[in-house]
Amino acid sequence: MSIRRRKGAEPATSCALAEPPNGRTPSMGERRAWRPDGFSIIASVFAIIGMLTLLYPNIASWISQYNQSRIVSEYGLRVAAASLEKEAQLQRAREYNEGLRVGAVLEGNVSIPKSEGESEGTEGEYRSILSLNDSGLMGRIRIPSIELDLPIYHGTDDQTLLEGIGHLEGTSLPVGGSDTRTVLTGHRGLAQARMFTDLDAVEIGDVFTLEVFGEVLAYRVSEKKVVEPEATESLQAVPGKDLAALVTCTPIGINTHRILLTGERIALPAAKGSPAPFSAPTVPGFPWWALGLAATIIAIGLYIRWAGSPRSPRRARAR
């Protein structure tokens, strides 16, 4: 029997060609899937590395200040808990100051002052005075005019000056008193920490405070000068005066001279503009750099998503 095909009917083979082999029509998502773009990812990685490199000083400085503020807060709590030991420690410090005979010298071409002073007792005894534990923490210095709030440590070795401000052994301990000059020194120009970088911005008449074992001492800057490292007379005590000297190196990175600020003791109530005694640290402030970093990462993520997205025929032809 013959089979007749109706006029206008499609060949049988045409139906087989129109149907996919698996019998299922591919979805739009299957035909246009997101694919990572290698060039965009590499470019984005370099962009993030560049951003982190630019922000590193800000990030490292903020983290350093945050850690120092935490240390200062813990110091205040420990001093409050050691109220019975307070007077004994202060008395030992005054006796140490009585035993001092000469000032101190700052060697040339180095960033750390070196003491030539002598006092009764050994270095171990020095580090045990005004000390709550083995950390070497001695007190706290605040300079409101440059928003500085840092811990003070015994000594001026490299590791100490990376953590905070160092007290120069051989000079008066920061407990005040007639015929005394305490010398505090700090690094300047560190990428990872601020320290005394802005000390040159402090002006005559500005007030800074030292907090040591519950005592708050206020000093008004009376002299600001740049001295040779061998100018030891600038660090010696002056009869009848209660002085505090702040020292750092200059120019930054060369360290051939010293910025020397001298503050003269004033009564605390007269310290106009000075921070409230024993107040909590306010440094560091809000990390604005984090907003820029977050915005950059979000923008890069959106760019990678866009670069790997399937393009319409019109976009493809435009490329």
From TrEMBL:
Pfam families: Sortase (PF04203). The active site is at residues 187, 249. One of its GO terms (molecular function) is hydrolase activity. InterPro entries: Sortase, Sortase_C, Sortase_dom-sf. Keywords: Hydrolase, Membrane, Transmembrane, Transmembrane helix. The chain crosses the membrane at residues 38-59, 286-307. The keyword Transcription regulation does not apply. Its EC number is 3.4.22.70. NCBIfam families: class_C_sortase, sortase_fam. This is Sortase A. Residues 1-30 are annotated as: Disordered.
